[in-house]
Amino acid sequence: MKFGVSMFPTDTSIRPEVLAAEVEARGFESLWVPEHSHIPVSRRTPWGGVAGAPPLPDMYWHTIDQFVALAYAATATTTLRLGTGISLVAQRDPIWTAKEAASLDFLSGGRLLFGVGYGWNKEEMASHGTRYPDRRALFRERIEIIKKLWTEEEAAYEGSYHRLEPSWAWPKPVQRPHPPIILGAAAGPRTTADLADLCDGWMPLATRHDIAGQIDRVRQAVAEAGKDPGSFEITASGAKVDALDTLHDAGVDRVVFNLPSQGTEVVIPRLDMLAGSIG
Q1: CATH of region 2-278
Q2: Helices 211-224 + 189-198 axis angle, to 10
Q3: pLDDT tens figures, 32-71
Q4: What is the pTM of this model?
Q5: Which of these, 193, 5, 140, lies nearest to 83 by C-alpha position?
Q6: Are 56 and 87 in contact (CB under 8 A)?
Q7: Nearest to residue 184, comparing CAs of 175, 169, 195?
Q8: What is the DSSP string of 118-179?
Q9: Neighbours of 229 (CB within 10 A)
Q10: pLDDT-based confidence at 117, cuts 50/70/90?
Q11: Distance in angstroms between the alpha carbons of the first and the last residue of the chain
């Protein structure tokens, strides 16, 4: 298995370039950075959209822009993969997102892992003009537009929500045909269809989603879509050290551990502990 770490970089935590250098030095394959543009103070949607969830930690509204943080991480490293974990595509402009992601992949020498998701915060989405019931359809169209902008010399698109007239957009990503698109969500029927049709990997939450019980079904759907299920990567996000053997036996390809969104005095000892557990 490959091993990565994830952290909300904020205005008070360890800086992303400092963290990235420390992560790479300890042999981890990847660094993942979540995103939230803002958090409306009403807090009508509970954390993760789960009823009865604890109060939302303030790192959610202090987080540094995802692509800016990963660009800083890229400058401090040479081999570390740079993961968006996850990018909230349903509330993002797809043309700008394609440009930002392609630019990061180009400047980093092909190190982007494009983790994506539907999102859960209804108020945050509404501020971006996204209706919660439309998020899956918007996600699908926007991923299709992004892939066209990444791979075609003259990209065009006609959908129910979006129209892109024939357009030029460079740089193209270094990775061919494009950076891996990895969807983070529970693998219900609609998500499984998106995984098979649009994506190159699945990133469930190790502590919430039924990974072992769904891997075979997801890979079967990928095969039925005419893709190689062996090249479709399963990433267990938010994994615990004591679950590594179980995840390995289930067929997980990559494990991502969460780091606290704090300073070096807390993060580095935690990183050392994780590195020791996988060494």
Answers
A1: 3.20.20.30
A2: 50
A3: 999 999 999 999 999 999 999 999 999 999 999 999 999 9
A4: 0.97
A5: 5
A6: no
A7: 195
A8: ----HHHHHHTT--GGGHHHHHHHHHHHHHHHHH-SSEEEE-SS-EEEEE---PPPSSSS-S
A9: 16
A10: very high
A11: 12
Note whether 247 and 255 are within 8 A (CB): yes
Read off the tokens for 254: 């990559």
Q: How far apart are alpha carbons 150 and 155 in whole angstroms?
A: 9
In sequence order, the 6+-apart residues with CB closer than 8 A to the CB of 12 are 62, 262, 263
3-class DSSP state of 22: helix
Question: How are beta strands 2-6 and 181-183 bridged, if at all?
Answer: unpaired
Element (H, E) at 94: helix 94-107
3 state SS of 33: strand
Gyration radius from the chain CA atoms: 18
Residues in the chain, how many?
A: 279
Pairing status of strand 233-237 against strand 155-158: unpaired
